Amino acid sequence: MNLKNSKGVTGIDIAISVLILILFVSLITGLFYNTSVTTKKINRKAEATNLAINTIERMKLEDFSNLKNTKIGDDEGKKERSESNISTLADLDVPKGYKVEIAVEDYDDGSAVKIIKAYVTYMENNQNQEIKIETLKKIND
Description:
The chain is of the alpha+beta class. The protein is 36% helix and 25% strand. The chain has one helix and four strands, in the order αββββ. It has one helix spanning 11-61, and strands at residues 79-80, 98-106, 113-124, 127-138. It has a four-stranded antiparallel β-sheet with strand order 1-2-3-4, with helices on one face. The chain is rod-shaped. It starts with 10 loop residues before the first helix and ends with a strand.
């Protein structure tokens, strides 16, 4: 004698299916959100790094005599691109939200080598982030 009817879907089967579906969708949505946020962070940092590299490369192309020291006392000596007297940076395309600063200083007392530093700052999650790249430029490079 069969007391249970096995035809159709019961309410408990539907409830379990909906619960599993909701858990799966929420996990996948969270995964996509975290991936999106991480991708945006990486893209902003890559943009800042490329901007710093382009700045350094342009400064390395400049004649050694045109590289004016910006270091003053204990100050880092950063100069905004617009304040710089380096003509090769005039056409540097700086995206909105990024700020380029340059520091040039003597490597040693002999003045045959200069240190060129490029700083790119941008906002990420209401905090300033900074990329700093530096290189040396010799008098006969």
